[in-house]
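Extended Data, panel c. Modelled sequence:
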Amino acid sequence: METSYDPAPGERFEHLWGYRDTRFEFCGETTVRVTGDRYPLSGAPLPHFIPFAEKILGVALRPQELGSTKAPPTLPLPERHSGFLEDLERHFDAGQMSAEDHQRLSHSHGQLSVDEVYRIVSGRAPERVVDLVVYPESEAQLLELVRLADDHGVVLIPYGGGTNVSGALLCPGGERRMVVSVNMSRLNRILELDRANNRAVVQAGITGKELEQQLAEAGLTCGHIPDSVELSTLGGWIATYASGMKRNRYGNIEDIVLDATLISPRGELRTVPVNPRASLGIDPRRLLFGSEGCLGVITRAVIQVHPLPAVRRYASFVFADLSAGLAFLRAVQGSAVRPASIRLASNIEFRLGQALKREESRSQALLSRLKSFYLLRVKGFDPQQLVAGTLVLEGSPQEVRHQWRVLARLLRDMGGVSAGAEAGRRGYQLTFAIAYIRDFLSRFDILGETFETSALWDRVPAITDAVERELHEQCRAHGVPGRPYLSFRVSQSYHTGACIYFTMGFSGRGLERADEIYQRIEHRLREVILEQGGSLSHHHGIGKVRQAFVPRVHSPEAIGALRAVKQRLDPNNVFGAGNNCFGGDS
């Protein structure tokens, strides 16, 4: 079964997104390409992206404007607890521990672009960095590590794939104890494959790519495909309450995981036996979802697995405007058909996708003109208003044929236009490569980030309109040069509503403390989302970046109950990352 990314391993960037063999680079004055061959987008020149970005942002993006990445910042000497280190060396080999600066720095942040990545590539260290990185290789070693940390008053921060975008991996600035990053990458095996009962027991440090590769060898899949699937881990998905692009067919992470084990300073949190469903009162297992490294370290999980689908079909569609596209998504949710993935891109996000097309051959260009003529002249769609979506259908040949017949009829009846399988394939695959755009544009002092929310169907247009208005007002008030960029896609749909996934950016050229201005604007946009009825997060979690809003979404009694659980499992705050309601002023 094909994947939208290269399953081969690769060397990671220490601070930027993704793999070292992949980056956007100029191959002409206004033409870029993606290096390597890891993604379908890689290799060929992309002549339309720079003109599109310059037009949207209102600033020049030419090779001579590229800034250079500064050397990594100098770090303070690590805190050392001699008694803890002496005991640790009795249980861990030298190759399982590192206090090298590059390791300490890379384990002290995630992928939050402005608060973390932008700061580091600008030559500034986080306020506090970890003092040691430890690589456990067994649950027995994890148990010993937690015991030693509790005995000696040391802080542990679990580290999975490092893709977190909520500030959850940042060390609390005022922490004076020794801080150890617990890198889970060596706990990355499938321990048991139970074909008779469609489940697997899997170590929490496995990445999505590793998990899907190992399952595929057995003809299986777990179906959890977030944008970060190549890099993020099973433990991280549980700890952040993650959602993937194929949740329609396979569910969100809380549907996929039947049980998980967490090691806390006061012992293991788990339930036995593991059955499809059990009425056992309040379910302690749910405490692991969204725990963000504050209750303990997740070591393994029992997950549902499915046979690889015999057929995968891509499709795409276009509607005249957002209202019509949302009505279609809602109708699909109300039907008996569930495509594995269905996503709707706003007009700007659709145009970004078009700008990332390779230079077309003569026959391809002719076909594109014919399609454009049909949409704009025959159907009368406004190119500044139309929206587009992608579909992924999976299952048996008969199932996929039935799905497409139902969806095609629904699409036609609601005034939409089918845009073909290849556009659907390309739109779905773009997700994995465009994440590298952020780091390319940051070299022009373009600050950008994604943020998401969920909302009831009738609130989606109000939220997107309000966020766009507020962004423009805030940029004018702060003297931001050029124009801000805002796009969004409806990435997951539910019976009652949907997830809205925003991408926002603007130029920081000439702004004093541009990162602080960005943080103020983004904070205000989150306020607007809550004021308009959106959720605080859909799948990125809370971490530290949304921490101040927690009292607005949880009652004092709810927060008190969570803190009581923390006190029971971790009374000495060994797992002191301080995320969610376990730190700050929340």
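The chain has a mean pLDDT of 94. This feature is highlighted in the accompanying rendering.
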